Structure formats: C-alpha cells, structure tokens
Amino acid sequence: MNPTEKKVYSLLGIAAKSRNIASGEFLTEKAVKEHKAALVIVAADASDNTKKMFTNMCTYYDVPIYFFGEKENLGHAIGKQMRASLAVLNKGLSDAIERQLKMIE
C-alpha cells in the first residue's frame, strides 16, 4: 500500500471518528438521496451491480464517486466489518480525501 492510499484510509478513519461517515449500502444511499453525502467511495471489489447503482445515483444527485480500495480495508479504516460503500458527509474531509484519490488515479 502506497503512502497516498494510507493517507486516504487515515482520513476515512478521522471522518469515522468525527461521525462524518455513512457506511454500508443502505446508509450510503440514504445520505446521497438526502443530499448529505459530499463524496461516495465504493470498494473496487464491490459487485458490478453495486458499482452501477451508485454510479447512476451519484451522477443523478451530482455527488463525486470514486472506486477505491477493497471492502475489507474500507471497513477496517472506519472500525467496522467489510464495507462495499461509504459516504463522507463533511465537505472539508471529503475535499481532503478527494485530493488524495486524484493522486492515485
């Protein structure tokens, strides 16, 4: 894992500790539809169906979406079990995470 990826995971951890993460398919979807999500991250190893659903939803609601990491690592970063999707609710944190994600692409 490169330093940029580590930084993303640590920022996700900070977001989780400050209660600025909605994780899991149901809560991520709810955050997007209630216009609370500033950024959506879907695990690269999530199912094609999940990726398609969130891609369409984020396009419709104009929320940036990234495919990053693996379900196990995403869950671990926020102190939970495996997570295929999560939404960052804080704009400042989402900007910081997005800057890191753009360096990886």
Short description:
With 105 residues, the protein is of the alpha+beta class. It is built from 5 helices and 4 strands.
So what's the CATH class? Alpha Beta
CATH fold-level name:
60s Ribosomal Protein L30, Chain: A
State the helical fraction.
55-70%
Number of domains: 1
Strand tally: 4
Low-confidence stretches: none
Describe the protein:
The protein has a single domain (3-104), classed as 60s Ribosomal Protein L30, Chain: A (2-Layer Sandwich). The protein is globular and about 30 Å long. A four-stranded mixed beta sheet has the order 1-4-2-3, sandwiched between helices. The chain is built from five helices and four strands, in the order αβαβαβαβα. The longest helix is centred in the first third of the chain and has 15 residues, at 3-17. The model has no long low-confidence stretch (mean pLDDT 95). The protein has helices at 3-17, 25-33, 48-61, 71-77, 91-104; strands at residues 21-23, 39-42, 65-67, 85-88.
List keywords for this structure.
105 residues; alpha+beta; 60s Ribosomal Protein L30, Chain: A; 56% helix; 13% strand; globular
Task: Draw up the topology in text.
Layout: H1 3-17, E1 21-23, H2 25-33, E2 39-42, H3 48-61, E3 65-67, H4 71-77, E4 85-88, H5 91-104
Parallel strand pairs: 2-3
Antiparallel strand pairs: 1-4, 2-4
Helix pairs in contact: 1-5, 2-3
